[in-house]
């Protein structure tokens, strides 16, 4: 049986066609991924429409990777910073969850509330019921001298 042989120009053509096909396929996939980005629809408010136009333009034209949630959060934080009100804050999803967990009244630890007294020693200001501290017999106004 005769071994197949290729001429140099045939190999060059095969390599060129393969590279061209891969380039076209990569461009097609990149275009599809770019179109997956969700655009926000305009409203009747001109200021909101301006924001939407810039947002959509960034999503459509920016070359690098964009985390849409981070982009929106940065815009919100910019608005909060601009009004310069010490009583106004924005809690993102994770900060909100952390705050709500703290408000649920769940605690971790041995079950004591502490402060430091005038001598700099640790003073128990409260003992929670049914906790390791209450079971161990710790009481309010006890001073912790070592751990």
Would you give an account of this structure?
The protein has 147 residues and is mainly alpha-helical. The chain has a domain at 112-144. Helices cover 52% and strands 9% of the residues. The protein has 5 helices and 3 strands; from the N terminus they run ααααββαβ. Strands 1-2-3 form a 3-stranded antiparallel β-sheet, with no helix packed on it. Strand 1 and strand 2 form a beta hairpin. The longest helix has 28 residues, at 8-35. It is elongated and about 95 Å long.
Tags for this entry?
147 residues; mainly alpha; three-stranded antiparallel sheet; 5 helices; 3 strands; 52% helix; 9% strand
Number of helices: 5
Shape descriptor: elongated
Q: What integer value in Å does the Rg equal?
A: 32 Å
Strand content: 5-15%
What's the N-to-C terminus distance?
87 Å
**Mean pLDDT reading:** 83
Give the secondary structure arrangement, pairings included.
Blueprint: H1 8-35, H2 46-61, H3 68-83, H4 93-103, E1 112-116, E2 122-127, H5 132-136, E3 143-144
Antiparallel strand pairs: 1-2, 2-3
């Amino acid at each position: 049986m005769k071994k197949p042989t290729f001429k140099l120009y045939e190999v060059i053509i095969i390599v060129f066609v393969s590279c061209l096909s891969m380039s076209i396929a990569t461009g097609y996939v990149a275009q599809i991924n770019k179109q997956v980005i969700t655009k926000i629809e305009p409203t009747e408010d001109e200021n909101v429409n301006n924001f939407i136009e810039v947002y959509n333009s960034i999503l459509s034209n920016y070359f690098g990777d964009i985390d849409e949630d981070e982009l929106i959060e940065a815009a919100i934080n910019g608005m909060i910073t601009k009004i310069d009100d010490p009583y106004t804050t924005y809690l993102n999803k994770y900060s909100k969850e952390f705050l709500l967990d703290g408000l649920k009244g769940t605690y971790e630890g041995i079950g004591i509330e502490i402060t430091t007294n005038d001598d700099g020693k640790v003073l128990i200001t409260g003992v929670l019921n049914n906790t390791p501290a209450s079971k161990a017999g710790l009481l309010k106004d006890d001073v912790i001298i070592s751990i």
